[in-house]
Write a structure and sequence with these properties.
This protein has 970 residues and is mainly β. Helix content is 9%, strand content 53%.
């Protein structure tokens, strides 16, 4: 989808580029000249691994987690102010701890810190991260899931757990944050600039989830949290509930003279959601008065979800002496999500109903009556079962007084199996039943009210069948009274890392680090799908074999309560248990079409990374300067195994496929932090980074088509290809980005800070997912008869088209982001306890593919994002309201057969709020109560097509969510 580029935006982009690059060049020049004159500071801190992690760089897996709990305790004491009897906790302590992490890092980083043990400040990790500058979240099923950082979607960032790369239960690389219970994390850091010791960093940023360290705790901690949830929309399906819960418990203690620490946590969640959904097929017509846009079809339905997740975490930390430190982490999460979906699919303008009574306005048919409509009534059931396991073991040995040796081993594994069931009913097979007469009227929000004539609860009219005759197995018609998809995924990542680091005296170069990392990732994708047809005869559901074309809905399957679709104009629809129908009334036939068979694939990545860096710490003209210079060398071997499938004269042929590619990338990086004024810092990062393509784009599989009907056909100016192919590309290279990052940060004595950052990214090897090229298919001629081969050669038809992703794109992303964290006590003591946390971001991009001069829209990019939090916290009371906004963006949604597709989503603003109280003394000390509400604006998720907001495609209303929680810590 192309973006229009005005002269104003061109001037704005040029100004951003000039400012960012110019400041970066000036800073590098002055910094480089001054370092040669710098006098070492003998009082500078040593370079032990924890200190290096806190001050110089992100805490990688090969270094113990920084003592952020100790810092937070000190922050709370410092923030108490004049009233020493007041202990600052909750969101004030969380913001202060996050500010300290940001201040001490030479990298550009934003953080979310837990308000207390087992308590991040929001309902989920993604909710918390979406409050940070430059970070936005796309809602899925009403929950914040897909994160975009600085305008680049989830495919351009990586997620680490305690510094280690993680696999995902999702289809590709992007982590679904539902797989991690938020109660288990002490900090979540978003690094926006790169460092040589940060393995597997992303282009847009790197999210590092940090668990607490028991030896950092002052003493034993036992914390229990429980929360009830209610969705603001009443249950939309009779076999679902709108009520849920969330419970967790944490135990932390130290033993053996505080040399052995243990942290244990458990969590259980049942999260409901109720979604009123509307999906348009699109719009026929050209948008003129004579040929207005007419609704092509619609698939409205109501959806009820229930997510059950159970998790556990364990950390064992042992430090018997100052010479040895060992930490073992384990995290396990198991979740099951069930969805009940019921609705009616109406083929309209794209099909063959008769249109009448058309009323138009501004090129749109605002009201239309369709006759001869054969709707598809659906009762669907989806289930997802997933498990996630992450293990890590880190050992740090002090070899000499100045040198440490660190070894880190980790294993991350995720499995997922889906059960996606569709069951269909209509008035007859292939439009042979009773037709309906439907009137559609456009609503103010762009959706359509659909009013039918037939009674969609009448079992005498509606039967299990294939109302539109859509069933086709690649060679002949089948009765598709339903369909079953059973995809499964297994993602496995093993990693081993080793490094040496040491201190240097008498120089601005304070420490050094060299190391290497080996990782092996293997993602297995397996698919099976089945046509479902009525029982009673026939084979493989084919019409020709005598498969019954209709069957009554079993009485035992009816739920007794019919689902209303009143928000659409449909009084009610027949409601049955799709699992009962599947198990008792339908046969299944394997889907053997080439496009279905070639989906199975395995992608394996072996990656060797070597790195070296030096850390800088000294004075420059009386100004404190810190930084690092480093480089990574990454050797990659990626391999794809799968199948190549084709069909010719009704016969499906399969051939195994196996391909391997290797390549090397060199990634330099530099970071600097200068304290220009007291508590005022300018930070700069310059780096080369990369991110690997989507795993499904690296697959080796190909779906080859041979169109017999085109053999020998020729006509000047027209092409009649016989051969074509569609698939992945094992030879894809990573996206490359040259980055310049600048940040100015001013911290105030009374707490709080203001920060302004600019960023510029020059992207190359950008993957075009729709790339195609000409290919000589001579090797497939033996699949044809000798006579057909002669015709193809004579007509010069051996050349066909291959559709496969390729690294043809390049362009730029640039932007500015800002943060204000302001406790109001800085203004007057009368407002002590009040404060605001405000962020904003503007991003501009120009990405072009080689085969198109028009710039594309980046998935997940909102030009403008903003978030504002107003809070009060004192005397045990706390109250907070947060509003976040993002402008329109290209959203990834589920398309046909659940395949991912992209559509433009409308801008949205979401308001969340909470209020609570924690008892400060007496026998209830440590007990707290909290009330929360999400999406108080009841903002729906809306997408549209063709850059025309009137052409609404998706409209999903999730409603408000309410929570009541109790916590006890002792």
């Amino acid at each position: 989808m192309a973006r229009s580029v005005s002269s104003f935006s061109l001037r704005r982009r040029a100004a951003l580029r000039t400012t960012t690059v110019g400041l970066g060049s000036l800073f590098l020049a002055t910094g480089g000249a001054a370092f040669a004159q710098e006098t070492p500071n003998p009082q500078s801190p040593n370079a032990n691994p924890p200190a290096a992690a806190t001050v110089q760089a992100p805490a990688p897996a090969a270094e113990p987690t920084p003592n952020q709990d100790a810092e937070q305790a000190k922050t709370q004491a410092d923030a108490a102010g004049d009233g020493q009897d007041i202990v600052v906790t909750g969101i004030r302590a969380s913001l202060a701890s996050s500010a300290k992490i940001k201040r001490n890092s030479t990298l550009i980083v934003d953080s979310v810190s837990a308000e207390d043990v087992g308590k991040l400040p929001d309902v989920s990790i993604a909710d918390s991260l979406a409050r940070l500058p430059g970070v936005t979240a796309q809602r899925l099923e009403g929950r914040d899931q897909r994160l975009s950082i600085r305008g680049l979607g989830p495919d351009f960032s990586t997620t680490l757990l305690n510094g280690r790369e993680q696999v995902t239960v999702g289809d590709n690389r992007g982590v679904e944050y539902d797989q991690y219970p938020s109660e288990f994390f002490r900090n979540v850091n978003v690094y926006k600039s790169a460092d040589a010791s940060l393995i597997a960093a992303g282009i847009s940023g790197t999210v590092d989830l940090r668990m607490l360290r028991p030896l950092d705790q002052p003493g034993r901690v036992v914390a229990i949290h429980a929360r009830g949830q209610m969705n603001g929309i009443d249950s939309l399906n009779p076999d679902s509930s709108r009520y849920g819960y969330r419970a967790s418990a944490t135990y932390v203690d130290k033993f053996a003279d505080d040399t052995l620490g243990i942290a244990l946590g458990v969590s259980a969640t049942q999260t409901p959601s109720q979604d009123e959904r509307y999906t348009a097929w699109g719009y026929s017509g050209s948008g003129t008065a004579a040929d207005p846009y007419v609704l092509g079809g619609a698939k409205p339905y109501v959806q009820s979800n229930e997510l059950r997740r159970y998790g556990g975490v364990a950390t064992i930390e042992w430090q018997p002496s100052e010479n040895f430190h060992s930490t073992f982490d384990a995290l396990y999460s198991k979740f099951k999500e069930e969805q009940h979906l019921r609705g009616v699919e109406f083929p309209l303008g794209f099909s063959d109903p008769v249109k009448s009574g058309i009323q138009t306005n501004n090129g749109f048919a605002t009201a239309t009556t369709f006759s001869n409509v054969f709707a598809v009534m659906r009762n669907d059931y989806n289930r997802r079962d997933a498990e996630n396991l992450s293990l890590g073991w880190n050992n740090d040995l002090k070899v000499t007084d100045r040198i440490h040796f660190n070894v880190d081993a980790s294993w991350s594994r995720a499995t997922r199996t889906d059960f996606l069931l569709e069951t269909n009913a209509g008035t007859g097979y292939q439009k042979s039943g009773v037709p309906d007469r439907v009137t559609v009227t456009q609503n103010a929000n762009g959706t359509y009210r659909i009013v039918p004539t037939l009674d969609y609860t009448n079992t005498n009219i509606f039967k299990l069948t294939d109302p539109q005759g859509w069933g086709y197995n690649g060679t002949q018609p089948v009765v598709q009274s339903g369909f079953l998809n059973r995809p499964s995924f297994k993602d496995d990542l093993k990693s081993l890392r080793a490094s040496f680091n040491g201190e240097i005296d008498g120089s601005i170069v304070k420490s050094w680090e060299v190391g290497g990392n080996y990782s092996r990732r293997e993602k297995t994708s397996a698919y099976s799908s089945y046509f479902l047809c009525p029982t009673g005869g026939g084979t493989n559901c084919t019409v020709a074999s005598g498969t019954p074309t209709t069957a009554p809905v079993p009485t035992a399957a009816l739920l007794g309560t019919n689902v209303p679709l009143a928000y659409l104009g449909i009084p009610a629809m027949l409601t049955w248990d799709p699992l009962y129908v599947y198990n008792n009334a339908l046969n299944k036939a394997f889907d053997g079409r080439p496009s279905a068979l070639v989906r199975d694939n395995v992608v394996t990545e072996n990656v060797w990374t070597g790195y070296a860096k030096i850390n800088l710490d000294g004075d420059l003209g009386g100004k404190a300067v810190k930084g690092s210079l480093g480089v990574q060398v990454v050797r990659s071997e990626q391999r794809g195994t799968g199948q190549i499938a084709s069909v010719n004269n009704g016969a499906v042929t399969l051939a195994p496929a196996d391909q391997k590619e290797t390549y090397t990338n060199v990634l330099p990086s530099a970071t600097f932090s200068v304290e220009l004024i007291p508590s005022g810092y300018i930070k700069m990062g310059a780096s080369q980074t990369m991110i690997r393509p989507r795993l499904d784009q690296e697959r080796v599989t190909q779906d080859v088509s041979i169109n017999i009907a085109n053999i020998g056909r020729t006509q000047p100016g027209l092409l009649f290809p016989v051969f074509s192919s569609n698939g992945g590309n094992v030879a894809l290279r990573p996206y490359q980005s040259t980055n310049i990052d600048l940040s100015f940060e001013k911290y105030f004595d009374g707490g709080g800070y203001v920060a302004v950052s600019g960023y510029f990214k020059h992207l190359t090897d950008f993957v075009d997912p729709n790339n195609s090229y000409a290919f000589n298919f001579t090797g497939l001629l033996p699949a044809l008869t000798p006579a057909q081969q002669a015709q193809v050669i004579a007509a010069n038809q051996t050349i066909g088209t291959v559709s496969a992703p390729a690294n043809t794109g390049r362009g730029e992303v640039m932007g500015v982001e800002g943060t204000i964290s302001l406790p109001f006590k800085m203004l007057t003591s009368a407002l002590d306890g009040f404060g605001v946390f405000v962020t904003g971001n503007y991003t501009d991009s120009t990405i072009k593919y080689a085969n198109s001069p028009a710039p594309i829209t980046l998935p997940g990019l909102s030009d403008v994002t903003a978030s504002g939090t107003l809070y009060f916290e004192k005397w045990g009371f706390q109250a907070r309201a947060n509003y976040r906004y993002r402008s329109n963006f290209l959203a990834e949604v589920a398309g046909l057969s659940a395949a991912p597709t992209y559509r433009t989503a409308k801008s949205e603003g979401i308001l969340d709020a909470q209020i609570g109280y924690e008892f400060q003394e007496g026998f209830l000390k440590g007990f707290s109560i909290l009330a929360q509400a999400k999406n108080l604006t009841d903002r729906p998720f809306i997408t549209y097509q063709n850059n025309d907001p009137r052409q609404v495609i998706d409209y999903q209303r999730y409603g408000r969510d309410y929570y009541i929680g109790l916590s006890y810590k002792f």
